[in-house]
Every structure is written in C-alpha cells, then in structure tokens.
Amino acid sequence: MTDHIVRAFTDELAELNSTVSRMGGLVEKALAGALASVSRRDADLARTVIAGDPEIDELQRSVERQIMRLLALRQPMARDLRQTLSALKLAGDLERIGDLAKNIAKRAIIIIEHEPAAVTRSIDRMGKLAANLLKQVLDAFASHAVGEAVSVWMQDEELDAHYNSLFRELLTYMMEDPRQIGPGAHLLFIAKNLERIGDHCTNLSEVVHFLETGEEIVGTRPKVDSLPASAQSHIPPED
Amino acid sequence: MTDHIVRAFTDELAELNSTVSRMGGLVEKALAGALASVSRRDADLARTVIAGDPEIDELQRSVERQIMRLLALRQPMARDLRQTLSALKLAGDLERIGDLAKNIAKRAIIIIEHEPAAVTRSIDRMGKLAANLLKQVLDAFASHAVGEAVSVWMQDEELDAHYNSLFRELLTYMMEDPRQIGPGAHLLFIAKNLERIGDHCTNLSEVVHFLETGEEIVGTRPKVDSLPASAQSHIPPED
User: Taking the model in full, what pTM does it have?
Assistant: First the structure.
C-alpha cells in the first residue's frame, strides 16, 4: 500500500470520527434542551428540540454511508476495522438517545398544558444524572479514556435506582389525585426514557472500551434485580 | 479469487444468514410466550421466556463475531458487503425485540399477582398484531420478498393506532379505580413495548428492502401525527 493511500485512509477514519463526535454534540444539546423544556415549562424550547432531530438522523445515515464506502474501498483490518464498526454502533446508540430526547420534548409540551407537577424536581435530578453519563462517555470517546468508559458503565446502576424510586413516587402521586393520572403517565414515560438513555450510555461505554482495548468489559455490574418479592411491590422490571 | 475461496465465502454467508434466522425463530417464540403469559396469567411460562433471553443475546454476539471475521478475512464487496452489514442490523433489532419480550414477561409476573384486568383482551389483540408483523418480516427475509417487507412497513401504522387507543383505555381504567394504577402502569409499559416491537419490525423491513434492492424504501408512511391539539388529549407522542 502506498503512503498516499494510507494517509487517505487515516483522513477518512478521522472524518468518520468527527461525524460521530458532531452527532454526540447535537444529541447532548437535544437532551439538555428536552430536560430544560420540562423543568422550565418551555414549549418553544421543546419544539426546537423536536425540529432538530432530523439533523441527527441525517448524520447517522451519513455515518453509515461513510462506513459502507470505507469497507468497500479500503477493506480495513484489525484496529482499523474495529474502529470502523465501532462508529456504526456509536452512531446507532446516539441516534436512539436523540429519539428519546425528542420524545421527552413531545411529552413536555403535553405536560405543560396541565398544572405544574410536584415531581418534576425528581425528574430534573434524574435528567441531570443521565445528561452527565452522556457527557462522560462522549468525553471518554474523544480522549480514548478507557477508565472513564468503565466508570460510566458502573454508574448506570445509580440511574436505575433513581428510576425505581421515581416510578413509585409517580404512582403515589397518581393515586392521591386521579386528575394527575394523564400527566403522570407521561412523566412515567419520561422517567423510562431517561432510564433507557442510561442503557444506551452503557452501550456507548462498552463500545469505547472495545474500541480502545479490543476486549469486552469484564465483570458484572451489581445490577439491582428488580423482580418484586411481593404483590405490593411496584418496582418495574428492567429490560 | 479461486473457486475454493468463493465457495467458502458463500458458505460463511449462508451460515451467517442461518444464525440470523435462528435468532428470528427464538425471538418469535419469546414474544409468543410473553404474550401468552399475560393472557393466560401463566407465571411459569413468563419465567421460561426470561430464562431464554441469554441464548438470544449469545446468538447476537455470535453474529457480530462472524461478521468481524468475514470482513477481516473476505473483504466482501457490493451485494456481499451489503448482506454482511444487513445481518448486523437485523441481529441488533432482533436482540432488542427479544429484550422487549422479556420485559413483557417480567411485567406479566407482577400483573398476575393482582386481580385480572379487563384490558388484557386489548393487549392480547395488540400483541397478536405485533407478533404477526414479526412473522411477516422474518418470512420476507427468508424468502427475499421485497413486497412483503414493504407491507410490514405500511402496517406499523395500524399498531400505532392500537397503542393510542389502548393508552386512553388504560388511563380511563386507572382513573375509575385507583387501586389499578400500579398494574395499569405495567400494562401501559407492555403496550409501549409492543409499539416499540412494531418499530423494530419496521426497521427489519427496511433492512430486508435495502438488502434485496440496494435502495431505501421510498415514500412516506402516513404516520399519525400524535401531538395533541388540546390539553384534554392523552394521546402519547411517538418517537
């Protein structure tokens, strides 16, 4: 292989990584906007988040096209191949986080039409935790930080605990005031969306780990088993 | 390339497709089991579904390993490359449907501990529709039937309509009897899981279409826009 071809390949891989990073930036912004639209009751901001989603989807398609071209023309091996396929996975998870943020924004618009709910503070706390996981794993990707990726992987458990307590809080709130069942259901789904975002951050951290080390994260996360022991329990099961 | 190498590649691709098909079969069985565990209130069956999920996950990892090897050793081009990458996507969506089926089974166990809910018949209807979409798209994959893939893609709209009506039905049911808010919340998530399974079937149909034609499905599905016009509306937004 001539030097020229090698350099071109490195350039293409750098371009691929830069598209993934750009996607990450947009997804981070979408999540921050969605969470702010809930806590500040800002329907215009929610609409901005919704309107921004097609750009994220388009970037994912662009990543897929770049990868098809790279594989067909460059036929990368070893670490280059790993890097190429990792970008495919990263883009997939980021697109899904973008979708979940958009869904939160759509639900924000509905909730805003109702009275302020007391539980939005808990949602806000959980949202900040999810946004922080996303930031950390994107940083880990950008700076090749394996340790930070593992840390995100471990922290998802905390988000799951938040979700379980929020689930119970929301059910109580709906039982106390049946008029809140409608908005409460949307808040339940917002909480679930945040929990899913945590799962996607876990996926992202696994990809970053595999990308940097060529190996899967070893060890078991101390995942709370959530099948309830009694009929009174309302703890929802994890996927 | 010698005939020998070409034949080996064809064999490997066939093996990859057979792993994906086997995954499809297991996922179909998991979904059927999860739905039956809800409608027949069968906790043992639900536990069987949950216990079967690791096998599906392992098959996905096997698909990924096969693809890494194929790309590294065979460096496939054109339709072969498309087929290889499509298998990666198919396995990803199937794994996710398996997860959603497992989640339905976990919620079934919780719901069974409560009184029978009147709405399980609606869940059953929606579940049959989702299972049918999955069957159709797996058939389309096995028989290279582009038309059938497009048909699945169009039918997802019907599942969305079911979901919206079930969402409203469940809220009414929770409002009428606050003791049903706990199980009602789990039924809401089961309905949402079925709606997500429909989305994954749509993804699968897009991959089958791309695999067979090299092109994306053209045209817009008449997707119901679900942002509600009034504050009274409880129609949930789609992703």
Answer: 0.88
pLDDT of B225 over the 50 cut: no
Q: Which of B171, B186, B189 sits opposite A181 (nearest CB)?
A: B171
Q: What is the pLDDT of residue A224?
A: 41
| The Cα angle at residue B138 between residues B200 and B208, in degrees rounded to 5 | 70
Give the mean model confidence (pLDDT) for residues B135-147: 95
Side-chain-side CA neighbours of B164 within 13 Å: the count stands at 19
Chain B residues closer than 8 Å to A87 by CB: none
Inter-chain CB proximity B182 and A192 less than 8 Å: no
Best probe of the A interface among B64, B99, B106, by most A CBs < 10 A, is B106
Q: Which residue is associated with the tokens 């350039």?
A: A11
Q: Give the count of alpha carbons within 13 A of B202, CB side only.
A: 18
* Percent of chain A predicted with pLDDT > 70: 87
In angstroms and rounded to an integer, the radius of gyration of the C-alpha atoms of chain A is 20
Cα distance between residue A45 and residue A202, in whole Å: 28
Mutation choice for B interface testing from A104, A110, A193 by most B CBs within 10 A: A110
CA dihedral of residues A182, A188, A190, A194 (deg, nearest 10): 180
Q: Are A24 and A94 in contact (CB under 8 A)?
A: yes
Distance in Å, alpha carbon of B171 to nearest chain A alpha carbon: 7
CA distance A136 to chain B (A): 25
For residue B23, give the nearest of B103, B101, B106, B90 by alpha carbon: B90
How many angstroms separate the CA atoms of B139 and B133, rounded?
Answer: 10
Catalogue the E-assigned strands of B73-226: none
pLDDT grade, residue A9 (50/70/90)?
confident
Per the CB < 8 A criterion, the answer to whether A21 and A15 are in contact is no
Say what the ipTM of the complex is: 0.84
- Please classify residue A80 by burial: count the beta carbons closer than 10 Å to its beta carbon, then call 0-12 exposed, 13-18 middle and 19+ buried: middle
Q: What is the pLDDT of residues A193-223, one digit of tens each?
A: 999 999 999 999 999 999 999 888 866 554 4
Rounded to whole angstroms, the Cα distance separating A121 from A125 reads 6
Per-residue pLDDT at B239: 56
Is A185 in Cβ contact with B189 (below 8 Å)?
A: no
